[in-house]
Write a structure and sequence with these properties.
It contains 21 helices and 13 strands. With 581 residues, the protein is α/β, with parallel strands linked by helices.
Length: 581
């Protein structure tokens, strides 16, 4: 709860406690009083606790509400306090109080978000596969994961990014053999151009058509897993070229992944046997047809039989369940994680739930440590089906981002041809990439959403360009003011000023809510409502042509604060706020 909300809740609670004390000697049994402050169409806020408390005391709720209102009416915080209906208390805040609260935000770079005890948070996200191009299926994990990272880093937490790339397993046998067939120099050239799919498909076609190639590939897997130096060198070459390509895509997306956070499946190889050994020592492993399995409590198959996590396969190899168990064990025991986030698609829910339960049974995952599946829906085309290219192929992520920037550039050139070519390109990148991110994050992440360039790049409605334009419009006003006029005291006098002010004062509470739920569409909604409130203020309250200097300075300061709040909110979503558009 923000300082603003805490102050109001404290005043209303105290007033209720005073009124209760005049009616009962056992006030303690009714504490703490939840003032139940809500938005109201008839006032700034409404307190609704009188009905519930009156019922417990068997007294008249309106009489109780009137007594509370009388106490609150003497507070300078409120301009008006009225009782409505059976006991609703409508609270209208005073302009002085609103101005004081805005003044607190003006001097606080976190805009009212209170400092929290620093935690260690691991965010597992993006997770492409080596030797395969990133596609639209990686879009949501990367964008949502990056927003999680930015949110927690902004609040001062220690955030450990983990990009759990697929860099191990049987496909690498065929990939390495294909590399040898075409030669290292040609393979390096193909991969360095980012054409990973062509390389992978060629290897797969050989594997499916040539039995001798299959044998070579299987033999190469054995060499890889046994640590053969030459095989490991070739494997590392594939990884380095793929990672270089991944980083180039991340750079174009403007996300905080730079290559230092790559922790592939191979990173946990040395931890697999110790993880299995610890599970065996704790009596959690059972044999099943030659495999060694962990049976998490509460998971059954269709035949109502216990569902296993196969830690070690019957052929002696370790599967991805073993890797995930080793990873969560490492993150808790070695990285001292307090909170672990897995930004992974909804279909992985059961698997992750089983891993979490297995970690609890092993004694690794225990309160207050938490592991959370930050699930998300699919990206759909305008036809309501899975988003595909015109040819029916999966859309490459790099091509999608290029198209977003290209379309944004066309809009910028039409709307503001006075910008220099360099400025147009910079703004187009911010608007294009911002539009893609915002379309994702403004949708409820647990649901599917439709990818529509025209809608997401619109300058009207709940889009990133609309918010970015609102910020740029404010900056245009501020550039026309004298430096000495900026940073003044805000005193709202018009309903549009008050509405915008109250919206800005909600920022800290929205950030707290998003921190708890990681439902970023709630922050997006706040941003859109703030931009809309600013538009109403702009239309109703002249700034540069205000009726007097005091009002001009107050409105300029309100513009400054709004711009700061919009830029901060967009920044938490990984979206830039250009000063010009």
């Amino acid at each position: 709860m923000s300082v603003f909300q805490q102050h109001l809740a404290s005043l209303v609670s105290s007033a209720f406690e005073k009124a209760l004390a005049s009616r009962t000697d056992d006030v303690q049994s009714l504490l703490p009083v939840n003032p139940q402050l809500q938005n109201s169409q008839h006032a700034h806020l409404q307190a609704n606790a009188a009905m519930a408390l009156a019922k417990r005391l068997k007294t008249n709720p309106r009489e109780l509400a009137n007594e509370v209102a009388a106490t609150l009416g003497s507070e300078t915080t409120f301009a008006k306090v009225e009782v409505a209906g059976p006991g609703f208390i409508n609270l209208t805040l005073s302009d002085e109080f609103i101005g004081q609260q805005l003044g607190n935000l003006q001097t606080d770079e976190k805009l009212g978000v209170s400092a929290t005890t620093s935690s260690t948070i691991v965010v597992d996200y993006s997770a492409p596969n080596v030797a395969k191009e990133m596609h639209v299926g990686h879009l949501r994990s990367t964008i949502i994961g990056d927003a999680c990272v930015r949110l927690f880093e902004w609040q001062g937490h220690k955030v450990l990014r983990r990009n759990h790339i697929g860099d191990w397993g049987t496909p690498f046998g065929m990939l390495i053999e294909h590399l040898l067939d075409i030669g290292e120099s040609q393979a390096t050239e193909e991969l360095s151009l980012g054409d990973l799919n062509t390389f992978y498909r060629a290897a797969r076609q050989k594997f499916e058509a040539d039995t001798s190639f299959q044998e070579r590939a299987r033999g190469r897997v054995v060499k890889l897993q046994s640590g053969d130096k030459e095989t490991l060198r070739l494997w590392q070459l594939l990884i380095e070229q793929s990672q270089s390509y991944f980083v180039s895509v991340y750079k174009s997306m403007d996300v905080r992944l730079d290559g230092t956070e790559f922790y592939g499946e191979s990173a946990y190889n040395d931890m697999l046997q110790p993880t299995l050994a610890e599970l065996q020592e704790k009596g959690l492993i059972k044999a099943s047809d030659g495999a060694e399995c962990l049976y998490p409590d509460g998971f059954l198959n269709r035949d109502k039989q216990p569902l296993p996590l196969i830690v070690k396969k019957s052929d002696g190899g370790f599967g991805y369940a073993a890797t995930d168990l080793a990873a969560i064990r490492n993150r808790i025991n070695d990285l001292d994680a307090d909170r672990i986030l897995y930004v992974v698609g909804a279909p992985q829910k059961q698997h992750l739930d089983m891993v979490y339960e297995g970690a609890r049974m092993a004694g690794w995952l225990k309160a207050p440590i938490t592991a959370e599946h930050i699930s998300f829906g699919s990206v759909l085309g305008t036809d309501g089906k899975m988003f595909k290219s015109r040819s029916g192929d999966t859309v490459k992520l790099a091509e999608l981002l290029d198209e977003a920037i290209k379309r944004a550039l066309a809009v910028i050139e039409e709307k503001n041809p006075d910008l220099s070519q360099q400025e147009r390109l910079q703004v187009a990148e911010s608007v294009g990439i911002g539009a893609v991110k915002y379309a994702d994050l403004s949708s409820e992440r647990t649901k599917d959403y439709v990818f529509d360039f025209e809608q997401m790049l619109a300058l009207e409605g709940n889009t990133a360009p609309y918010l970015q334009y609102a910020h740029a419009r404010i900056q245009s006003i501020l550039r026309q003011a004298d430096e000495a006029e900026l940073g003044g005291q805000i005193t709202p006098h018009h309903d549009s000023e008050r509405a915008l002010a109250l919206q800005l004062l909600r920022f800290a509470d929205v950030v707290r809510e998003v921190t708890d739920t990681l439902l970023f569409h709630r922050l997006a909604t706040w941003l859109y409502e703030s931009a809309s409130a600013y538009s109403s203020f702009y239309n109703n309250c002249p700034v540069l042509k205000a009726e007097d200097n005091e009002t001009r300075r107050s409105r300029l300061a309100l513009c400054q604060l709004t711009a700061s709040a919009l830029a901060s909110g967009l920044g938490l979503l990984g979206i830039k706020a250009p000063d010009r558009m």
